[in-house]
Amino acid sequence: MPTSLMLDQHVEVLAKSGTRLADHAEAAGRDAPVPSCPAWTTAHLIAHQGMVHRWAAAHLHGGDLSNVPLQSQVVNDEPDLIGWFRIGLVDLLEAIADAPHDVKAMVFLRDAPAPRRFWARRQAHETTIHAVDAQAAELGRLPLTEEVGTSTELAVDGIDELVCGFMPRGKSSSLAALAPCTIVIAPTDATQAWTLTVGEGPLHTAPGQVDDADATFRGTAAGLYLGLWNRGEDFTVDGRTDVLSEWRASQRVTW
């Protein structure tokens, strides 16, 4: 599946978001709680994302995945978490740059792009969202949409990855409790929109919007991007009042 951003754009986002994550985490301090991830301190956040960067790089260059350290191991044993994280970010950027365009590697989303493009995109968005978590740790609250500064183009690409790649996976929808239900996601500052149909079996996502949706999420693309990842509330929901609460409760990506 083609992406709306190019490889070099995803790489640029990954580099900038990784730097921002490290800077916010360093300012927050190792033991600061992460408001958007209540079970974590900043140390857990840095260890998690640094581990994932190394895991992604290993897939691209054919490294031994068993050498990727566990999050708990890093938290307990690594005295310089920020430095360790920055090394992993550089290694991932180099792995993407060095990988041939037709590299063979695992991907795990529905209708995913080719592996090199997939990992650049996936880590651009994962690192962007976790940079928001690090910013929240520094602020002691979720940052406002304008404080994050996500571009419309990146937000549209990220929404598309979430609703077309993540959410249709599996034999049944994570939103199955809402069935039957039609949800429209309609950014106010972009031409793209998505219609999600919740019924029996996997969730179905289609481009565009229908007029008779049970619920419609509206806001800027950036506000929706953060909100759909449960990192913000800068959007509105028209229609069924239970849709947002069920989304908040069930939309958790664990793999």
Can you give a write-up of this model?
It is a single chain. This protein has helices at 7-28, 42-61, 71-77, 81-98, 115-139, 145-148, 152-166, 221-228, 242-250; strands at 181-187, 194-198, 204-207, 215-219, 236-239. It is of the alpha+beta class and 255 residues long. The radius of gyration is 18 Å and the shape is globular. The model has no long low-confidence stretch (mean pLDDT 95).
Q: Please report which band the strand proportion falls in: under 5%, 5-15%, 15-25%, 25-35%, 35-45% or over 45%.
A: 5-15%
Rg, nearest Å? 18 Å
Order of helices and strands: HHHHHHHEEEEHEH
Q: Output the CATH class name of the largest domain.
A: Mainly Alpha
Question: Termini separation (Å)?
Answer: 20 Å
Quick structural overview:
The protein has 255 residues and is α+β, with helices and mostly antiparallel strands. It has helices at 7-28, 42-61, 71-77, 81-98, 115-139, 145-148, 152-166, 221-228, 242-250, and strands spanning 181-187, 194-198, 204-207, 215-219, 236-239. It folds into two domains: 7-143, Four Helix Bundle (Hemerythrin (Met), subunit A); 152-250, SCP2 sterol-binding domain (Nonspecific Lipid-transfer Protein, Chain A), CATH 3.30.1050.10.
